[in-house]
Amino acid sequence: MAERNQVGMNLVDGAIGGHATALPVAPLFLCDAEGDWIELESLVATERTLLRNDPRKKYEFIAYAAEETKWVMRYESPGFSVWTRLLAVVRTPKIVVPVLWDRRGKYQVSELRAAFLKAVEQDDDVLTQFVQRDDLVSRLSAAANFKEFMQVWEWLGMDR
Q1: Taking a C-beta distance cutoff of 8 angstroms, is the pair 12, 100 a contact?
Q2: Residue 118 maps to a domain
Q3: How many Å apart are CA 114 and CA 72, to the nearest integer?
Q4: pLDDT tens string 85-94
């Protein structure tokens, strides 16, 4: 079971459903549950805006925070009626949904490295747009802590 509201965690009162909820501290690396991509988040989301024509769907992401804590970020599209989808032809209505964060304990640097390397393996010239794949893999393999992964990210030019 995920840990919540731990001492020293950043608490936001009423952010999600009127309950105090523990949040990770930015910056953090966020990847999809399948590990197909990774990105740096400088803000911690407490809500997401979705198009109302989204089908009922659950979204789940893995986050690696600078203080070496691992988190799962989840949100869900409530699904929409046929009427709402027909109205979407005229205008694109949106809905704001809450984001839930579950702390999953500490992670090892090797886990963050594996997430990065899998994203590089799945990459469609986003991470490797301006650098050679072998150079990127070499730098990721040498990174020993979160700060060094941040330096690799900056080297990629992804912080622009």
Answers
A1: no
A2: yes
A3: 17
A4: 666 666 667 7
